[in-house]
Amino acid sequence: MTQQTPVSKASGEGGAAPAEPVRDPRLLTTVASPKGWLDALRRRLRGGELGPIPVIVGLLLIAVVFQSMNDRFLSPQNLSNLTVQIAAIGLMTTGVIMVLLLGEIDLSIGSVAGLSAAVLAVLAVKQGVPEWGAIAAAIGVGLLIGLIHGTVFAKLGVPAFVVTLAGLLGWQGVHLYLMGSDGTINTSPNGAIAMLTQTYFVPFMGWAIAAITVVLYTLSVFVVERSRRRARLPYKPPSEIVFRAALLSLPILGGVWVLNQYKGVPLAFLIFVGFVVVLDLVLRKTRYGRMVYAVGGNAEAARRAGINVDLIRISVFGIASTLAALGGIMLVSRNFAASVSTGGGAELMMAIAAAVIGGTSLFGGRGNAYSALLGGLVLGAITSGLLLLQMDTSVRFMITAAVLLIAVIIDAISRRGRKSHARGGA
Prior knowledge:
Layout: H1 34-46, H2 53-69, H3 76-101, H4 109-126, H5 131-156, H6 160-179, E1 184-186, H7 192-198, E2 200-201, H8 203-230, H9 238-260, E3 265-266, H10 267-285, H11 287-297, H12 299-304, H13 309-335, E4 337-339, H14 347-357, H15 370-388, H16 393-424
Antiparallel strand pairs: 1-4, 2-3
Helix pairs in contact: 2-15, 3-10, 3-13, 3-14, 3-15, 4-5, 4-6, 4-13, 5-6, 5-13, 7-13, 8-9, 10-11, 11-13, 14-15, 14-16, 15-16
């Protein structure tokens, strides 16, 4: 193995530092310069760590192609509509990502979204329950369903595929029963339900949210890196933190500027992004998140390490179905109605496709919450572009299938590259 000497901030005091043991390349600190950052990026690519690069490149290509075919694609109005459109599927995708991290699959999220939408509409319209109360009840139904699925899977040993396939059929049946002969229940266009997708923040609020986001990110990274420095662990220098914050600010401030040209930043998109950020922090910064990755990587090893594998599995399915219920609520809010077709169309396949396209591995143990945002943007951009070009739904399905296949191929190739890199470094 070729030895690599990490750049240590703790060395160099009182003369030459002794030779350090070889470390995992992912723990190496980088020189605070463009060359250092490029070297770190090169190491990650050689190790099969592609990250979000393929998705970002794909998004740029999609934007260039559709803008060249229709100059309204990148208009503020179309981009604003796109952010609202992806909120429902994006929330469902976020739940799918949790299940995929375990190396499992949940086929019931579309039916759960539809059932939650039916519960919401029946309670709010037919039973006269206040809309916020109906929203809470619909979310509770999603959580209960997820806990049932997780318990049957974890405690009884029934494969997740079978459990959630039964859920897909069963909960869809309950959905149809609740809707009754009406088929469609219209909700108020001015109530709390409608507010979720019809609320836009004034420009000042949009700028304030963007500024607070960048500042909080920068301060949190400074705090974390200062703790790592005090513990004599590899850490990022201040110049790199500032550089990363500047890079983060570009899409955030640019996005707010574009959205402010139409109606402002939509609440629905902020809700979606908020769940993505919170879930990402949970997965990366908490003990629970590390246990999820451990169970997805090797359940038996996690069990021997003292992790309650059954509890992790039950909780993950509970989170997934809760987020599916939130997606169903967003569908009702956007359409001002719940119907027998809510959640029963292509929502399931789109949510799974968005998770994989965004970079979550089908093999378990690899991925992050931001896959929902990236994958949702890719599928939303494809749908929006094809609608502007007035192409048939069949074309959208074929293009989505091709993009999904490419994403899976990239995942398989990068997985093979990680294995080869690990063998080469052994």
